[in-house]
Amino acid sequence: MTKSAPKKLRSDDDDAASDARLLERVAAGEVSALGVLYDRHAPGLMRFAQRVDPQEYEDLLQITFMRVARLAERFDGRSASARAWLFAIMTRIAQERSRSLRRFTAALSRLADLPHRREMPAPETASDLERALSRISTAKRTVLLLAEIEGFTCDEIAAMLGIPVGTVWTRLHHARKELRALHAEFEP
Amino acid sequence: MSASHCPRTWEVEAVRDGRSSAAASTAFAVHAQHCPECAREQRALAALGTRLRAGASAAAPELMLRRVRQNVLAGANRHALAPQPTAAWFARFAAGLGPRVALGALALALVGSGVLAYRTQRAKVRGAAALQLVAAADADFAHLREPQLEIIELRAGSLEISFRRSAHDSLVVRVPDGEIRDFGTVFRVSVQHGRTEEITVREGAVLLRRPGRSDVVIAAGETYRAPALPLRPQRATAPTPDRQDSLERSEAVAAPATRGGANEPGVSAADGGQPIQQPSAARTDHSSTRRRPARPAQLGPAGLRERASPAVGELDEQDRAYLRILALLQDGRRAEARLAAQEYQRDFPAGFRRNEVAAIAAATER
Q1: Contact yes or no for A187 and B2 at CB 8 A
Q2: Whole-angstrom Cα distance, residue A138 to residue A134?
Q3: Which of A54, B45, B163, B232 sees the fewest Cβ atoms within 10 Å?
């Protein structure tokens, strides 16, 4: 992923510095700063959450910002931008919830001899692409969304998810491959 | 992906993902100009990205964003108001460590408390100038100071309050039907007929707390307005259990322009509020000798809507419905379990067990 023009970079830097200051204020207990941070990033995070967890995206957004309020003092602006940090928090919460739901479903299956089901189906109103997207695994889908929609570089994604960059490349490749297999429109 | 004959097609993705060096990317760009397969692959990947981004560009649901915002800020406020770890907690924690570590921690704590005391002193000095009040002519209020706490008792009228919060000073505005916690703000509060009529926040956020009712967070740019008062006393036959709910639901309704007339009944009891105990500290009273008639409420943008917690009875019903689903599953009656799960989803769309019930409903469909 290449960055945009120098003028835009300057603006991004200003926003990042402003976000870092907001997080400092949140860490100091200033609730209004959390509101400003929410207004700035919630729409983007919500769109990401809608695709990562279409059933529970509202909860995901709320838990993310509640955790931001708790973890703000740990934010280190030198290692990652505030935006990447927020997406990393949301991604980890989504992974935790996905694991928890899988465990619960597996326990239910054992209890009542039900067939095991890995993923929740996409809503009936979703487009073909959304349905295809919902059928690839959460790990691959997350990497694809972060790279293609949110514009993070593979190095940034690796840092956010705490995985090697090679794993990011592999997941990205397989995500595209599966999505294209499910959606013939993108075949060359 | 379709079968490809060019051995360099994989480089399309490598360049896109930043796997290739700058030199390799440049060399591949030259190759792609003459290779139709690689050019097709580039277009296909670009189209995929474009479609994904197009799907994500739909406008975010505004109501949902506002609802989550209020929940987040209310949660953060509760966290900010929660009691901090005490010295006894620290002693217990230190006792659990080895003696050397405990001694080191004690030394750190002593240095820390010295710094804290210094900062507290400075905050107190600054605190005197951090609070500014602009009272309307009809304002009847008192200003008290307690250690690390500024208290304003507003009995009637309007006050414009500007407060810069420090680490050790906070502000509470006591109103007849509750209190307002300030988190470093500029806001205006109006009290009429023994209850909070309106709060307008210009900067920061405040938390309105009233006995027996859920907290309301009012953030910058938002206005809270109390529900309209009944013009006649309620008849004895009116259903009483819905009284609280109707009040909470009507928070967002703009008040009628005729509100504030002299014939209105008192509301302190009907509103469910209880008087807050007044402290015995010395106070500065600012009661005006002449009262203006209450100004009519203005029709304006809708105020905040409280999120009422589900009633205890409803929670019991949810639990019973969920336990019934589990019992049906354990008995192997899957079809009935699916129907019960669908009933749960219909009756309690935001129920506490909605995730589990959705999983059961999906699993029993097969």
Answers
A1: yes
A2: 8
A3: B232
